Amino acid sequence: MRVLFACLGNICRSPTAEGVFRRKLEERGLAHRVAVDSCGIGPWHVGKAPDQRAREAAARRGIDLSALRARQLDAADFHAFDYLLAMDHDNLQAMHEQAPDDLDVHMGLFLEFADLPDTAVPDPYYGGEDGFEEVLDLVERAADGLLEEIAVRLETPR
């Protein structure tokens, strides 16, 4: 099973989602069965570490994002992952525009797994520290829902 999180530049929301989901997989004993990655829709931050504010907010919750580096969504990603999860509607639209016609994966909004009325993770980049904490709260809730779905899929024989 393979999961890809996507946001605009891959320095705030999607690396946070990657880090949170990796930890939840480890806690559940599923890290060896699910590969996790993140990317950005655009090339602006390729090769850069996550935003310092995102790293600090995650570290306060025991999540280390320091080894992650931004990369851009690639055409091969559409066939390499089982879940392609966007942080907001614009990211999802960009993914749909790039997706091949024969795509047979789950491509949608990450917060759909959080059972919340608003399905977009707000971009904290131009805001203050509170925005990064809000992103973590939302991502943790969605990660729990995604983890439950994946756990069921892994237990169900195909």
UniProtKB/TrEMBL annotation:
EC number: 3.1.3.48
Keywords for this protein: Hydrolase, Protein phosphatase
Domain Phosphotyrosine protein phosphatase I as annotated: residue spans: 1-149
Family matches, as InterPro entries: LMW_PTPase, Ptyr_pPase, Ptyr_pPase_sf, Tyr_phospatase_low_mol_wt
Any Pfam family hit: LMWPc
Gene3D superfamilies: 3.40.50.2300
Top-level EC class as recorded in UniProt: hydrolase
Protein name as annotated: protein-tyrosine-phosphatase
Family: Belongs to the low molecular weight phosphotyrosine protein phosphatase family.
Hydrolase as UniProt keyword: yes
Domain of life: Bacteria
GO molecular function term, any single one: protein tyrosine phosphatase activity
Active-site residues, as the UniProt record annotates them: C7 (nucleophile), R13 (nucleophile), D123 (proton donor)
